[in-house]
Amino acid sequence: MNTTTKPILAITMGDPAGIGPEIIVKALSREDTYQKCRPLVSGDAAIIELAVSQMNAGLKVHAINDVKDALFELGTIDVYDLHCVDMSTFKQGEVQPQCGNAAFVSVVKAIELAMSGDVDATVTAPLNKEALHKAGHNFDGHTEIYAHFTNTKKYAMLLADEFLRVIHVSTHVSLREACDRVKKPRIIEVTELIDDACHQFGIEHPHIGIAGLNPHASDGGLFGWEEEKEISPAVEELKARGFNVEGPVSPDSLFAKARCGKFDGVVAMYHDQGHIPFKVVGFQWNRETGRMEASKGVNITLGLPIIRVSVDHGTAFDVAGKGIASAEGLLLAIDYATKMAINRKK
């Protein structure tokens, strides 16, 4: 791929007290990252310099205030420098209001750059919600920040790894309310979103599996009525409109089938129905160290006018600065963002 055609990715620093800077340095020290995209960091150059120093990475930090000044060269990390951290009071591995604010302004700048067309996609490192709120930014997380600053009303969360891609009819509501939100229009809406996303990933004819809500997808009405009244009608309408969908599929077999390649995407009816199988597959716990060694999966916000892909793990304050955080999730996020940016331009 020609250098000038590689998509430009704005990677947000995340909470500077967490592992975001470390995994960014690890990801941007790899040649294959620069072979697929032109990355720059939205954040504080001094924080990235600290991460480089702690890891003895031997990389240069190039502070810029205009995307046109970025070098995009292996061995140099371009940082859109927001001067958002006071290094004299900065404490690694702790919740601090200034770190919550730094994470926030880094995200807002990345959104601005994407909305103006200066970058082709955004990738977010983890922020800490407590620090975010202590800084006076009362958002639930990245998704809500993106929705607010892009004026997006309808959006949905997609979890993805190399093989499993899951979108949700509802997310952060009680289980009782989640059942009430299983409605035909919403099922159709999120199916349209995941189908479009699969095309952006380069999948020409995506096959989407739609979960049932109840055990065994209600077994013909024995265990509930949502499949008959809401899910099946949604599936039939989608088929009539030309979508390659199947369902309602029994939830206890759907995700295993998707993981093995039968489906390119899955529509889950509620938060835990989708998150639990995804995290069982993607999270790797080390029994000897008592730590989560890797979390390979990404979180993609669909419905936005810009591309946003995030790691699907937290700030891990307990290991920040120790050089042991895995960059697998961030590398996968960069890969997905690159594919989406390329296919959006086609």
In short:
This protein has helices at residues 20-27, 31-36, 45-55, 97-115, 129-134, 142-150, 175-180, 184-200, 226-240, 251-259, 271-282, 328-345, and strands at residues 8-12, 38-43, 60-64, 76-81, 121-124, 156-160, 165-168, 208-211, 245-249, 265-268, 283-286, 291-295, 298-302, 308-311. α8 crosses α9. Helices cover 39% and strands 19% of the residues.
Write up what this structure looks like.
This protein has 346 residues and is an alpha/beta fold. The protein has twelve helices and 14 strands. The strands form two sheets. A twelve-stranded mixed beta sheet has the order 3-4-2-1-5-14-13-6-7-10-8-9, with helices on both faces. Strand 8, helix 9 and strand 9 form a beta-alpha-beta unit. Helix 1 packs across helix 3, helix 4 crosses helix 6 and helix 8 packs across helix 9. It starts with 7 loop residues before the first strand and ends with a helix. The mean pLDDT is 93.
Shape: globular
Q: Which structural class best describes the helix and strand composition?
A: alpha/beta
Q: Which regions are unreliable across 5 or more consecutive residues at pLDDT < 50? A: none
What string gives the helices and strands in order? EHHEHEEHEHHEEHHEHEHEHEEEEH
Overall mean pLDDT stands at 93
**Main beta sheet:** 12 strands, mixed
Q: How much strand content do the residues show? A: 15-25%
Estimated helix fraction: 25-40%
First-to-last CA distance: 15 Å
Please give the radius of gyration in angstroms. 20 Å
Number of beta-strand segments: 14
Strand order of the largest sheet: 3-4-2-1-5-14-13-6-7-10-8-9
